[in-house]
Every structure is written in C-alpha cells, then in structure tokens.
Amino acid sequence: MAETIEVSGLRKRYGDVNAVDGVTFSVAEGEFFGILGPNGAGKTTTLEIVEGLRQADEGAVSVLGLPPWPRNPRLLPRIGVQLQASSFFERLTVREQLRTFGSLYGVPARKADAMLETVGLADKADVRVEKLSGGQAQRLSIACALVHDPELVFLDEPTAALDPQARRNLWDVLSAINTEGRTIVLTTHYMDEAEALCDRVAIMDGGRILELGPPAVLVRGLDAPARISIASGLLDAADARQLPGADDVEDDGVSLVISTRDPSAVVAAMAAKDALDGVQIRGATLEDVFLELTGREYRA
Fold this sequence. Notes:
Layout: E1 3-14, E2 17-28, E3 32-36, H1 43-51, E4 58-63, E5 79-82, H2 94-103, H3 109-118, H4 134-146, E6 152-156, H5 164-179, E7 183-188, H6 191-197, E8 200-205, E9 208-213, H7 215-222, E10 226-231, H8 237-241, E11 246-251, E12 255-260, H9 263-272, E13 280-282, H10 286-294
Parallel strand pairs: 3-7, 3-8, 5-6, 6-7
Antiparallel strand pairs: 1-2, 1-4, 8-9, 10-12, 10-13, 11-12
Helix pairs in contact: 2-3, 7-10
C-alpha cells in the first residue's frame, strides 16, 4: 500500500527537554494508526509537526507526498485536523458553525449539512454550540475536520473527558469514517480505544517510539500469564495453589484469581472440583503492554 505519511529521524527540543527524540514511522493509505503514550511522551508534539503546525529541529516528514512545513497550502484541502481543545464561533448554531467551516474550503451548504448526518448531529442542527454536551461538541469538532472531505484526518484525543456511552458512540463514527477509505491518525490515552479502532499503534515515552505494530501482535509478544477469576469461597486459596498449572493465587475476599500460563489445565482441574461458577478468564491486553513499557508510576 502507498504510504500516506513518512516520518524519519524526527526531533524537537525545548531547552534541555527532548520532546521528540528520533521518531521514525510510516502510515499506509487507508490505515487507522494510533499514537499512545503517557503525559509528556511527545505524542501531541509529533502530531503537530506532521500536521505542519510546528517546525521540527531535525528529521524529514512527508504527508501525501508533500512537506508539511513551512505551512503547505497544497496540503490544507487534503487533510483534516481535530485538536485536543476546539473553539467554536460564539452564538452560532451547529448548522451555521459547520457551514462557516465549509465555506473556508468552498464547500456548498448542502454538502456541509450532509456531514451533520454522518456524525449524528442532524437533530441538533439548530442548537447553538454552547448548548451541546461534551460528546456532541466532539462530534461537531470532527465534522468540522471532515467537512471538506479530506484524504487524511488527524484526531488528538477525540474522546477525552467523554462518558463511556459517548465514547463508544464516537467510536462508531470514527470506524465508519475509516471504512470510507480515509486514513486516520489518532492519539489517545485509552488502550481499549486503540485496540478497538487501530490497525497499528506506536507506543511512545520520553519522545521515543518504544514499540510499533498491530495491537494483537504487541499483546502476544508480551507473553503474559492468563488470569482466571472466580468468586471467593468457591475454592480454597490453598487448594487453588495445588492446581496443575497454577503459578500464583490471590484472594481478596471478593474474587479468587489464579495466574497461569496453562489455563486449560487449570480450568479442567477447577471443573473437576465443581468450581467454575461465574468463572472469568482474562488474557493480556494492550494496557498491559503499555504499562510494561512505560511503567506504572503516576505522572501528572
């Protein structure tokens, strides 16, 4: 597949801080690509350089075959950008807001109105933007990034601060956009979001890419034990430790959890003891990979 984005040896410094430190990656045409990392990892700075909003100190960037910096007017009609924080024109309705954005690209009003249907805001067309909920405002922000039908869309933490229902709803919108053939680059703190949406992810920390690949491949590469959980009291912890294949057992009085690299053997032994009521088996997730690479300490 053709490469929509090519980044090589990207660096950006702020005084003594290497915000981006030798980042290299590519994004294929039609791919849903995620950039993950803790606060201060360099995600947003990397994205802003690729978008042409910030100049790199070193390295090369190609977007749709063109350099994004200095701000390239040939790229602007071909890309859509949704930033972490969006500001709308005051006192305009949703329809007026989107038509205004569309007019900057010569988009007819009828086409702008059709985008409201795409993002599920048709019933809010005559509502003023300050009356929108957080999820609705995020949808409008994405609509503004898409109104001119860009080939490539950048989304910087589009579901931040949304409730679970609004997040899941927005996932459907983003999946539909990608299915239409658009290339999407996403930054997010939510590992379940990246697993659900992204074809590949890059995990960053300290301005560097630590791992890059499909989420399922990264999870398999972790080689983490499975965790089998049942309600406390179904099986004594001492007996659980004697089960074939059991590596570790924890019982907090609510759940008994057995860690194992041979879940089939453990489950078979539990079945023989009639201790499978409400059993749950959890393998490793992208969050486990993320924490293994970036650490578990809190970062403000």
